[in-house]
Amino acid sequence: MHFSKVRNPIAVNVVCRLCMCGTESNNCLLLFSELVDKCIGSRIHIVMKTDKEIVGTLLGFDDFVNMVLEDVTEFEITPEGRRITKLDQILLNGNNITMLIPGGEGPDV
Amino acid sequence: MPSTHPQWRRRRLVTVAISEKPKLALLAVHRLHPSLSLPSNEGAFRSSKMSLRKQTPSDFLKQIIGRPVVVKLNSGVDYRGVLACLDGYMNIAIEQTEEYVNGQLKNKYGDAFLRGNNVLYISTQKRKV
Questions:
Q1: Could you read off the pLDDT of B69-103 as tens digits, one per residue?
Q2: For the segment B106-124, what is each residue's pLDDT rounded down to a tens digit?
Q3: Going from the N-terminus, what domains does chain A have, and what CATH number goes with each?
Q4: Pairing of strands B68-73, A97-102
Q5: Does B86 lie at the interface with A, CB-CB under 8 angstroms?
Q6: Which of B42, B51, B54 to mutate to probe the A interface, most A CBs <10 Å?
Q7: Domain Sm spans what residues (chain A) (predicted)?
Q8: Residue A60 with chain B: CB contacts under 8 Å
Q9: Which of A75, B16, B39, B65 is the most core-located residue (most Cβ within 10 A)?
Q10: Is the CB of residue A75 less than 8 Å from the CB of residue A81?
Q11: Cβ separation of B56 and A62 shorter than 8 Å?
């Protein structure tokens, strides 16, 4: 996701495009599930608890943040950055998900 | 019917939809008739966030039964076979299973049952490394 920046000698004002909250306001009024819902249809980069990352197009999710993805690439971080590309659809168990990065393209390997 | 009557307006738009730019027209029709399901044309709608292909995990699970799948466990072990059945806990029964450890075929089982807490992901199988 891109941030809009206004160059300002005193402070940099950044507005999050997802939740439209600025640095001034400090309250994001959206629920987490609403934020994730906004990502449906776009690429998302998921970091797991282990040294694994998954990049795919988000098709859907549920209350437990199990995710349905498409055109998925799986990255194994550390050894030599092994990569496995899966097409079609995947259901990723939400148990091990640590971080969601919308619009991300994954580690640079 | 006067041309400003809502029903008449809708009908006209549908007529335009058939003849002119199909993609834009379909979106316009959808706005007026949200109940109509749009054709699942993947190429056309992938970029727009109209959530046409939104699929929750439970829908996905219903859809993949009987298909060849790849199931990866937390331990990294891979199982490939035909999905016989599964449940909401991601407990899985697979037929004609092949077990891959570190990418190498280790075992073959006629039937395998996997406990759901170990499952990292379930993927349909159209794979290239």
A1: 999 999 989 999 999 998 888 999 999 999 988 87
A2: 887 788 999 999 999 999 9
A3: 9-102 (2.30.30.100)
A4: unpaired
A5: no
A6: B54
A7: 31-106
A8: 54-57, 59-60
A9: A75
A10: yes
A11: yes
Of B46, B121, B129, the CB nearest to A91: B121
- Helix, strand, coil tally for chain A in percent (to 5): 10, 45, 45
| Contacts with A50 from chain B: Cβ below 8 Å | 74
Residues of chain A scoring pLDDT < 50:
none
**What distance in Å separates the CA atoms of residue A95 and residue A67, rounded to the nearest whole number?**
10
Structure tokens at A39: 């990502």
- Verify whether the Cβ–Cβ distance A85 to B128 is below 8 Å: yes
List of domains in chain B: 57-124 (2.30.30.100)
Separation of alpha carbons A108 and A12, rounded Å: 28
Please tell me the predicted confidence (pLDDT) of residue A57.
Answer: 93
| Closest A-chain CA to B102 | A82
Q: What is the pTM of this model?
A: 0.67
**Facing B61 at nearest CB: one of A41, A86, A91:** A91
ipTM of the complex: 0.77
Write a three-state SS string for A48-87: ECCCEEEEEEEEEECCCCCEEEEEEEEEECCCCCEEEEEE
**Which residue does chain A place closest to B46, by CA atoms?**
A41
